[in-house]
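Priority: medium. Attachment 1 of 2:
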């Protein structure tokens, strides 16, 4: 009589599951982005993400840890190109930085790939302190302060935050609340009207 195979601990992923590789990890991240976008941080669960990805919830914990860590990974992964773009925004004369920042920020919202995690983080950050902390860490630290560091003007961080408030408000009305005619007007018309205001925040005395 042979010994029985050792029992797997409850809640632990099998060896086959953990060896599933990057494809499984990416599928979990995609499912997480969809769940957070549709439900917000508070109503999303690890179990729901796992169910959407077609995996065991233990596998989600195995790859990412807590729900906060899943949320941050899902948002940061999708926004990585956008968060790495500020160097291009501030190249060239300062008198054009308002238009470049406006076009960049609103352009990220126009792209469905980056809009999904943005919707997730904005909707979640409004009602949840944990999600708000992730928003500050990813967007404020990695994006706004990097832009501010390139501006040779007094109160650079405050100026960039005021500009960001203007742009976030437009994005919310256009893509989240969908107020007309802002929701359907051509992006170039918005840029033409908003860029001078953003420029004023960044460089006016």
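Attachment 2 of 2:
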């Amino acid at each position: 009589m042979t010994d029985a195979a050792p029992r797997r601990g409850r809640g632990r992923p099998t060896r086959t599951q953990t060896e599933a590789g990057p494809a499984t990890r990416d599928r979990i991240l995609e499912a997480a982005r969809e769940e957070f976008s549709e439900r917000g941080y508070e109503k999303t669960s690890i179990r729901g993400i796992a169910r959407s990805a077609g995996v065991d919830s233990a596998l989600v914990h195995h790859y990412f840890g807590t729900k906060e860590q899943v949320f941050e990974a899902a948002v940061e992964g999708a926004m990585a190109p956008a968060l790495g773009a500020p160097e291009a925004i501030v190249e060239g004369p300062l008198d054009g930085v308002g238009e470049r920042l406006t076009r960049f920020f609103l352009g990220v919202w126009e792209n469905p790939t980056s809009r999904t995690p943005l919707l997730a983080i904005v909707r979640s950050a409004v009602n949840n302190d944990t999600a708000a902390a992730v928003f500050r860490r990813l967007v404020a630290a990695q994006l706004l302060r990097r832009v501010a560091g390139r501006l040779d003007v007094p109160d650079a961080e405050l100026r960039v935050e005021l500009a960001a408030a203007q742009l976030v408000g437009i994005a919310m009305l256009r893509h989240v609340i969908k107020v007309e005619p802002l929701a359907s007007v051509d992006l170039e018309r918005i840029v033409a009207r908003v860029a001078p205001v953003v420029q004023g925040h960044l460089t006016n005395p």
